[in-house]
Design brief:
By secondary structure, the chain is α+β, with helices and mostly antiparallel strands. It has helices at 119-123, 255-263, 288-303, 321-331, 361-364, 384-397, 436-445, and strands at 14-15, 18-19, 25-33, 36-44, 49-54, 59-69, 73-80, 83-92, 95-102, 105-113, 127-130, 136-141, 149-153, 159-164, 169-172, 184-187, 192-196, 203-207, 211-219, 222-230, 237-243, 267-271, 308-318, 338-342, 371-376, 403-408.
Length: 459
């Protein structure tokens, strides 16, 4: 999310005897062209400089100027590739709505001015919330869709960004990116959450007393930095290490899952992949065995803590983690109590178009711990019809007695409810598939092991 601020020229702000309202700040919302809805963001600073982001017109943090600022309306203009684009609309009560025009093209826009939030302000609200009936909510980042904090309702699966309208009132986006409207509101008073969704009774939840601890651990010369989220239940805690998929990913890609598992009573370790965030090394130069070694280092780190149940440490991972997690489960067979695999790749790396010679099947053959697999039947990245059979065959040959596989209907690679599974619909999605979070909670609560230390399903 860009934090640049947007323009104000108060001197040119008198019309019909009234002065123009302040317009500096960050404005976000929707732009609509026919059936298409896209995100628009305009930042205006107090010196009168503006920047516009609207991808359909190839505007990406593009410089703009205030052309007219009146008591009840604002017009800004930007030039891009020889074309002048204007954004003209009515203003009032922190809202700005009107029409954007570029040549013969036009789009209706509706924006809201955001309340500025400092990092320490966000720290007071990020976390896990629970209502009196055990319904869990989580607030954290999902960097797949930018750095805006997201609210997840783990009962309904709804996920959307939080946009601050004041220091306690937030707009809850209708999708992960666009459309934002019609948004609902969330009141985040000290220590609590009140969600008001249209047509539904308000829900009130209390923020759990979890603790985010910044930690580091080593794998040889590489220092790995992460966050260990400690639950509000008494220790020693069962624990989960989150395993990265492909590409450069930090701990911020895990937000919905860290808050969910902490709400179930698990300590959760999310770390920056080597060469990203606060971690040293280079993930581009690391093979799957090396990346597995990083995960094992995280497991060993947890085992060195007295507040962690060393016999109840498991893994959760997505995508490429389906190649890394079986290596961990074999090399650290006595230390991994369970695994949850989200859209795990089962075919060879070369079959997936990568210039690598790696086949995960021989590793899955030797995995003996309980494993839960989730796939989406619309997953275009890891189609279950291709990825699951080789994993299933290997686990059967290895006689693993505790394997569960779930294919969620209408779910894409992120297990969001979708229509096609194509990447172009991701920005417009709003819910995880039904049964995903509850399925994980139920499966974890049913695992064999000492029940006294194992959290139970919230329902």
């Amino acid at each position: 999310m860009r934090q640049a601020l947007l323009p104000l020229i108060a001197a040119a702000a008198i019309a019909c005897g009234g002065s123009a309202p302040p317009v500096s700040g960050r404005w976000v919302g929707d732009a609509r062209k026919g059936d298409a809805v896209d995100r628009i963001e305009i930042a205006i600073d107090s010196a009168g400089a503006a920047r516009v982001t609207y991808q359909p017109w190839s505007l990406s943090d593009s410089p703009a100027r205030i052309a007219r600022n009146l008591a009840d309306s604002l017009t800004i203009e930007t030039a891009n590739g020889g074309d002048t684009t204007s954004f003209r609309g009515a203003m009032g009560e922190g809202a700005w709505a009107g029409v954007a025009v570029r040549g013969k093209d036009s789009a209706a826009f509706d924006l809201r001015r955001l309340h500025p939030m400092l990092a320490e302000d966000w720290e007071q609200i990020v976390g896990t919330y629970r209502n009196g009936r055990g319904r869990l909510f989580g607030i954290g980042r999902l960097s797949e869709f930018g750095m805006q904090r997201m609210l997840v309702d783990y009962q309904t699966g709804r996920i959307g960004p939080l946009y601050p309208l004041s220091d306690r009132l937030f707009l809850y986006g209708s999708s992960v990116i666009a459309p934002l409207f019609p948004g609902d509101t969330v009141d985040l008073a000290t220590g609590g959450l009140r969600l008001a969704e249209a047509g539904k009774a308000p829900v009130v939840a209390v923020r759990l007393n979890t603790l985010d601890e910044q930690v580091t651990f080593e794998n040889g010369p590489v220092r790995l930095a992460g966050t260990l989220i400690l639950p509000a239940t008494p220790s020693p805690w069962p624990a989960i290490v989150l395993v990265h998929g492909s590409n450069a990913l930090t701990r911020d890609v895990f937000g919905p899952w860290t808050r969910f598992f902490a709400g179930l009573g698990y300590a959760v370790l999310a770390f920056d992949k080597r060469g990203t965030g606060g971690s040293t090394g280079d993930w581009k130069q690391a093979d799957f065995s090396t990346l597995a070694g990083d995960v094992i280092a995280g497991v060993r780190f947890l085992q060195g803590r007295e507040d962690i149940d060393q016999d109840q440490i498991g893994l959760w991972g997505a995508g490429q983690a389906g190649w890394i997690m079986p290596i961990v489960a074999v090399r650290a067979a006595d230390d991994i109590a369970f695994m949850i695999v989200h859209a795990g790749a089962g075919i060879t790396a070369r079959e997936q178009g990568r210039m690598l010679d790696f086949d995960p099947a021989p590793w899955w053959l030797r995995v003996k711990c309980p494993v839960l697999f989730f796939y989406g039947d619309l997953d275009a990245n890891v189609p279950p019809a291709e990825s699951w059979p080789p994993i299933e065959a290997a686990l059967r040959r290895g006689r693993n007695p505790s394997v569960t596989q779930v294919v969620l209907p209408g779910a894409n690679h992120l297990l969001l409810s979708a229509k096609t599974g194509a990447s172009d619909e991701y920005p417009h999605l709003s819910h995880f598939a039904p049964g995903y979070f509850q399925g994980m909670a139920d499966w974890l609560s049913a695992l064999p092991g000492p029940k006294a230390s194992r959290p139970q399903s919230p329902n």
